[in-house]
Amino acid sequence: MFNKALYQYFLQVETPFYFYDISLLHKSLDNLTRAAGKYDYHIHYAIKANANDRVLQIIKDYGLGADCVSGNEVKKAVEMGIPSEKVVFAGVGKSDAEIIYAIDQSIFSFNCESIEEIEVINEWGRKKQKVVPVSLRLNPDIDAITHKYLTTGLPENKFGIPLQFLDRVIRRVNSLSHIQLIGLHFHIGSQIRELAPYIELCEKVNSIQDIIYKKHGLLLEHINLGGGLGINYEDPDAEPIPDFEHFFDTIHEHLKVREGQKVHFELGRSVVGQMGSLISKVLYIKKGLNKEFMILDAGMTDLIRPALYGAQHKIQNISRPGAQIKNYKYDVVGPVCETSDSFDDDVMLPKTKRGDLVAIRSTGAYGEIMVSQYTLRNKPKAVYSDEIRTASGNPLVIDEIV
Ligand SMILES: *Cc1c(COP(=O)(O)O)cnc(C)c1O
Fold first, then answer.
1. Of ligand 1's atoms, which has the minimum distance to the CA of residue 192?
2. How far apart are alpha carbons 154 and 150 in whole angstroms?
């Protein structure tokens, strides 16, 4: 992924910075749209994974819609030119201002998580004389087999409407004059690497649909299965593009789609995760009593996933690409005054020196978007592979492995 010319370029850029491999983003989107197109599935990109303008622009150009979880994300989607009829808006705590804005934009669907919220939307719909399209986000009680902070479909999560309330909620929603119930929505978690939870989800959706039809004579037009498809963090080069085809084939095999129904997904991480790397410089190799600390100029303010939920990213010393022997063990840490400001412990790397560049891989999702300015640190900039020019002014070809 990082060839010599690219490395030479990196040496001139202020670190830390995010490097985005735009050609990989294109390839991922090619694969995704081809695989989803096979079944006419509708994809809404989950903006919270990465809302970088250039990245969003490319995603928009592939015709994807947007999955938003805040009013400002809805605004961003609209401002980027994503048609409002492709925008969905989820979240357990939508404020009145956010609701009003989204109603004014005539978005495709409010994905609602409680009857209390739907009643507020109904009131705003009445005031604005608009019937507002709503999907119910149901909590299907599925263990997504992922980190506990990344599950969202278990009964103890704050997300979604418990299935036990479904009957009551549908009856109540049907009595509201300014709400149109258009679909069902699910999102069971994130970084899900097994397909079993999705198969379980399909089966649950099938039976929920049967129940709704039997009890209420309702056949809702839209089924939204959310996002959550995981990526290979351990070995990004082995799997730079998630297997979207297998994912959608599996859904197609297990989900019963009724006449006229449309199926939607909200993918975030799987679209953008692998195209990003956080490039950082080694400030010090500090000897501890029993350990050696590799202190980087990137920290938890640049990439918070390891500190926030113990996420592990592949760390490479790209200044020593030829070094086959990785027999030095480092705790790779950042400069911020928090013990949790650590990227990983006991990382095996070639002998590393001050000034070496390291790449923290698979940081295209939930990286740049979560940057903070804690301790008044600078925000890392983004470098886009297709904007890099060689000294002679030609685009740099970066595909070849060092
Ligand atoms: C975060 C989120 C997604 C995207 O999740 P990924 O794991 O990035 O695919 C989809 N839908 C909703 C409602 C979300 O909150």
1. 7
2. 11
Ligand 1 atom nearest the C-alpha of 270 is 9
- Tell me the domain boundaries of the chain: 4-16+274-387, 22-267
Backbone angles phi, psi at 31, to 5 degrees: -65, -45
Q: How far apart are CA 180 and CA 309, in angstroms?
A: 38
Dist. CA 357 → ligand 1 center (Å):
32
Single-letter amino acid, residue 61: D
Average pLDDT on 40-51 reads 98
Give the tens place of pLDDT for each residue, 289-309.
999 999 999 999 999 999 999
Mutate to test the pocket of ligand 1, among 45, 47, 48, 231 (most ligand atoms within 8 A of CB): 48
Amino acid at position 177, single letter: S
Stated pTM of the model: 0.95
- Alpha-carbon distances, residue 86 vs 105, 261, 365 (angstroms): 11, 16, 21
Give SS3 for 349.
strand
CATH superfamily of 4-16+274-387: Lyase, Ornithine Decarboxylase; Chain A, domain 1 (2.40.37.10)
Superfamily of domain covering 22-267: Alanine racemase (3.20.20.10)
At residue 218's C-alpha, the angle toward residues 125 and 85, to 5°, is 45
